[in-house]
Predict the structure.
Amino acid sequence: MERKIFFFILIFPAIVCAGNKTSPGTSASGKYPNLFVELLHKSRPQVMSKIDSAFSQLFYGDDKTQRVFYPAGSDMGYIEDINNLDVRTEGMSYGMMIAVQLNKKELFDRLWKWAKTYMQFQSGQHKDFFAWHCNTDGTVLDSSSASDGEQWFVMSLFFADARWGNGGGIFNYKTEALKILDAMLSKSDSSDSGEVVTNMFNKNYRLVVFVPNGKADGFTDPSYVLPHYYELWARWADKNNNFWCEAARAGRKFLKAAADTITGLTPDYCRFDGKPLKWLAGGHNNFQYDAWRVAMNAAVDYQWFGKDKWEVTECSKLQDFFYSQGLSSYGNIFTLDGKKLSSSHSAGLVAMNAVASLASDFKNKKDFVEELWNAPVPEGRYRYYDGMLYMLAMLQVSGNFRIYDPPGNHVTKCTND
């Protein structure tokens, strides 16, 4: 099916979501910059060859050292977290997004059927949510949901509807997306009992919760906050459209509150007011693995919608900080004020810092793009997380991470601030 990149500035000139008056972004222009071409002067065939090679290695490379995708039977497959020997909604939804962006329907359908068959609950309190991780044979390890997975599932399903059209049953992509979207806001508002399944978004703050149950729905993960997705849901959902516009606005405001004003670093987990969560074990009040992704989310949000110039400032601060730490050697865990806690130099963080160049005005942003270009495709024990972020970054930096507008979408006008 032909790509359906939408041009709202031409079709719906009066329709905007809340935000600052800045660049309309690629949602209006339909033009996605290729920083490998524009900053590094690579040819487009060179770029696509590099993307194809990386995809082939991560999805179809050596079973023991390279690939993260494994077929299951004739029509299913899963993305494995090699380090933890399990399957996570995070990886499955990332895999589906990579597949739809690269127009690989057969791979997309394999992943979706596995997730639908083994991970999604079909009844009970958890209905339409997903178990956040399973064994590779499909047995559920934990019935709780990690809210990022559901969000990426919804977005990839909407894009699949736009690129390929809907099929029957579980391959009616739009119906499946709307089902998950509805579940996010139709559970219990109260977590007083401690065990009840709650909404995936706190309706007072309009922010995504870390886990939708009474044990972990009172705080959030900044890397789960995806304003650019909420903008699209406001246009495409069949209900709660105004809520999604409010969530986009609240998400941008929250990220600004969560980021350190000097370094730009954000914590792994924090309260809804943006304050780091200090009582939970594991150092999640620091900048570590989850938080790497905030740069990606802020940059893509600005690239797509151009609503908040703060995202330019944030991406620039992050690059300035990491450049000062040594471009080719900076660590991967820091306190928010910049004290290094780990000297490991991780490909996943290199990837996310390159994506920041989509919004950054840092004078040396080209160097971050070049670091990604020169980085080897992740292999070995940590190839799952590093590899998924690397692959997403390759698509985003090259202009191949695009909005696909489902046919017959519902468009909601969002009020200005």
